[in-house]
Every structure is written in structure tokens, then in C-alpha cells.
Amino acid sequence: MSDPKGHVEPGGPALVESIGPDLTLSKLSVGPMDNNAYLLSPTDGPVVLIDAAADPDRLRELIGDREVATIVTTHQHHDHIGALAELAVATGARLLAGTPDVEAIAEQTGVRPEGVWTGDTIGVGDSALQVIGIVGHTPGSITLAYEPGDDHPTQLFTGDSLFPGGPGKTSTPEDFRSLITELETRIFAVYPDSTVFRPGHGDDSTIGAERPQLEEWRARGW
């Protein structure tokens, strides 16, 4: 990887790197909350955008003249959907989000994504993203997993469920217990330490770098 931390400056250029044999990732920081938007570009075929969060003009510039197959929203919070309606019209892309968050997204944006959940896949070129429902930060938060099957590490796009240093914010102790359990069973118990995860804000990390902190996170609680 060109930058193990995947750092991008708010308002700055996108970080572009190869994450698989036929897939390029562009990471762009948008909006006042330093949201990460991720563009997945296969060698052939249309692209996939993860979180049309804000700054639609910058996102359109990032996309360029490429066809957008799908826009995936990781969860319902307003800072992750600020450009969704405009990009939906501009691109004609299929819209997807975690099923329990669809209604809230539709109410806020006026556009209704199709619902997806654990076990579903999202095509990107000849590859696929695996959908993993992670309940806690919101009822319908999803993580997307890309497993390139070569020397590149697995990639996880975790939205606001997992950051370097801990889980995302939750509203109640029950939500926290759900989130930490989901992360332990669906992420840390499944993916190797080499796995890179790309959160909804800020820098990237790896599962191996965060694994030693799991007990501390659970003890720290809500």
C-alpha cells in the first residue's frame, strides 16, 4: 500500500491505490466532518461509490466520465448521505443500504435505496463485495468486505462501526453491547490480522493493529 494509514486531507486530493488484481481504490475526504468517500474502479466496467456523504461536485469530479453502477450507503446518519440524492440523479446508479436503515435514508434524502444485509453481495467489475450487517451504531449499519484472493490483503469498509482505537459511537449501553459483540463475532473472529479496514472518517488501520484492544474496548463500555 502506498500509505498504510490511508490518510487524506479534508478538501485535498484523493488517495489512489491498487487493492486487487483488477480493482483500484480512490479515497476522498468530503464535508465538514471529514467523511471518507470511497470509489472502487475495476479495470473494465462501471464503478461503485461507497458513501455519497457530501461535496457532490467533488464526488462528480472524482467519478469523471465513468459509469456508476452502484452507490452504497453504510448507514443512515446525515453526514453520510448529504450528496446521495444529487448523485443518484446525476449518475442513475442503483442505490443500496442496510435494510433496517432504508426508511430513515429515504425520509432524509427523498431517494429510497434497495435494502441489503448479511449474505448479500454487490458486484464491482468481476469481483464482489460481501455485505455484513453490524447492528449497534445504527440498526442498519453495514460493512463491506472485498477479498481479492491474491497477495493483496482483504479490505473492509466499516462505515462508523469500527475506527482505529475503538467502535463507533452508540446511543445506549444495549447498542454498545450489540456493536462490540457484532465486531468480535463478525469481524475479528473471521478476518486475519493483515486485513485492512477503511472507516467512515479518518485514517485506516488493520485488524491486527486493533485486535489487542478488544478486551479494553469491552471493559471501557458505553
TrEMBL record:
Keyword Plastid: no
InterPro entries assigned: MBL_Glyoxalase_II, Metallo-B-lactamas, RibonucZ/Hydroxyglut_hydro
The Metallo-beta-lactamase domain, residue ranges: 34-201
Matches recorded under SUPFAM superfamilies: Metallo-hydrolase/oxidoreductase
Molecular function in Gene Ontology: hydrolase activity
UniProt entry tagged with the keyword Transcription: no
Annotated SMART domains: Lactamase_B
Domain of life: Bacteria
UniProtKB keywords: Hydrolase
Name of the molecule in the record: Glyoxylase-like metal-dependent hydrolase (Beta-lactamase superfamily II)
Organism, scientific name: Naumannella halotolerans
